[in-house]
């Protein structure tokens, strides 16, 4: 079997070339593949676990009954996700992330304006509101069973915290159509599930100007001390003179 054409054996050459061009932005070394134990389903993902491609062996019915195909999809999808997680761990170990900047907290241009006790209370209240908003967003996703259905209506799935926990496939349909049609609907559902369970507002953590300001000062204790008047300001003015300005 030609691995380069796996899952596209019945497609015309122009269809295969068009599909390959659509996936070119992701380099080969960043394309991670997960397969089921019978190796009839292939799910290709990016290091961020975005689903790039799905292939189904043309002769998959020799290994699996149509009524059991859903288990193969779950296995391949989660194998791909695990491969992506392993790559992320490797990348962090090779290139540890730089300390967060939080809006220039370590730079000379960082905010040096004085903070009164009332200012601090307002800042904490604003950060609390931003954190509550993040908590509400996370509650709608984290540990929740999220579902998706393919545009063709023959396949549906569910995922929790990015892991596929269930796939349902119409066995009569699966046993009577081309492998490429099955692959298309699997890809549709897996992409929907990935988007639903990994929204950027959750993956990036709590965000907001107040949170960034507080975190910036915590990463720069001397600036925090200057702003609350425990240390003299950088320009030599007293805290009271800065407040009066």
Automatic annotation (TrEMBL):
Residues 1-36, 93-117 are annotated as: Disordered. It comes from the Bacteria. Residues 18-36 have a biased composition (Basic and acidic residues). This is YbaB/EbfC DNA-binding family protein. It comes from Amycolatopsis albidoflavus.
